[in-house]
Hints:
Layout: H1 2-8, H2 18-28, E1 34-39, E2 43-44, E3 47-48, E4 52-62, E5 67-70, E6 85-90, H3 91-97, E7 98-99, E8 121-122, H4 125-129, E9 135-145, E10 148-156, E11 163-169, H5 180-195, E12 202-208, H6 212-219, E13 228-234, E14 243-246, H7 254-266, E15 271-273, H8 283-287, E16 295-300, H9 326-345, E17 348-351, H10 359-362, H11 372-383, H12 391-398, H13 402-414, E18 418-421
Parallel strand pairs: 7-8, 11-12, 11-13, 13-16, 14-15
Antiparallel strand pairs: 1-10, 2-3, 4-5, 4-9, 6-9, 10-12, 14-16, 17-18
The protein binds zinc ion.
Residues 172, 178, 315 line the site of zinc ion.
Amino acid sequence: MLELINELWFLKRDIVSDDFDRALYRLAEEIPMTIHEYPTGEACWTWRVPEKWTCHEAYLETLDGRRLIDYADHPLHVVSYSLPFEGRVSRDELLRHLHVHPRLPEAIPFVFKYYERDWGLCASQDLRETLTDETYRVVIRTTFEAGTLKVGEIVIPGQSDQTFMLVAHLCHPAMVNDDMTGVVVGLEAARRLLAGPQPYYTYRLLILPETIGSVAYLSHHEDLIPRMATGLFLEMLGNDAPHALQGSFQPHSQADKCMVSALRGLDPQGYNAAYRTVINNDERQFNAPGVRVPMLSLSQVENEPSPTRPYREYHSSLDTPEVVTQKRLEASLQVALGLIQAWENNQYIVNRFKGEVFCSGYGIWIDYRTNPEGHRRLFEIMERCDGCWTVADIAGELDISFQAVWEIVSLLQEKDLVWLSRTPQPTTPR
Length: 430
Ligand SMILES: [Zn+2]
């Protein structure tokens, strides 16, 4: 994962650009991928695919030719989708078009103006402080032309066509944690799923430019939407912060109950939060009206009230491979795979028994004198095995981890006391 990041991170991965395509084609060498293309101007519901944008050259100079900012040094020096501009500007005018990071004095900020057209440069606060001349020369040579927006899709066919969507965005020039990390974790998860036994659900991983990529894909695959059972957006998965699981627009969905309770068993430091309260991203398009797929989002975002939320280097030139480690990427991969595993396991528990189980007779009795908590849990869980509760329903009701319920359910299954069903199977004789 870190090798791929090191190879691709510095590319100028603007939403529709040659370098975005380069990165996507490189990833397609790693795993079987279909690349969907949507031409500039194509209608995607209420949106349109933007032009391909290229910055050929851009710099800021003093009038005597001393270069202060150069796009060749760092792609963040130019606002993504900046209009072209060439000329002498007063210091005041320059400062109106020169963006700096609000918090980090030494960083170049990531600024984009995809739809609100203007020209702009970005620099560190440190550099801005040195701008004392009356007049400067600005050169921004950018072009807008017809191109195609590209979405990479990796499919892991399951026994069922009910689908779990995984999504990560590959755009953002020269940045890593947001969101090369989501891309490589998603790719590795897909690779593991392809290599393992066939899953019950079908999985589709989309690697796309943020927002417009999701809208383009969804609006061109409306037939698939009814089969999208749930999904997980992946981003910011390599930095040093607890895992955050953001719920979907439908917090009472099976997907929410399942993944929220599963995170407890996967990262004890992790936390859950409501829809749109951790980070806003592609999951919005899936949760939106007319789509309504309960898609959650997994990230590593500093918990409130951290002043550097989501993370210190966010949307800046300091978001480099140094922010992430292979170990943290591996840990995030395990959390993502653990959430998927819970979703695979989440079924209705149907009792073969009637009445309360004679636990001692089945060798599953837990002594309340030595393990009162275990004793209580066993009975609380068995009590709900009536064909109407899923594993996630029970975990949610008892406020315990999915894995804790699953452990007991597995034991009951082993003793042939219960069976699992993908649909409710009420066993109450009324
Ligand atoms: Zn971002």
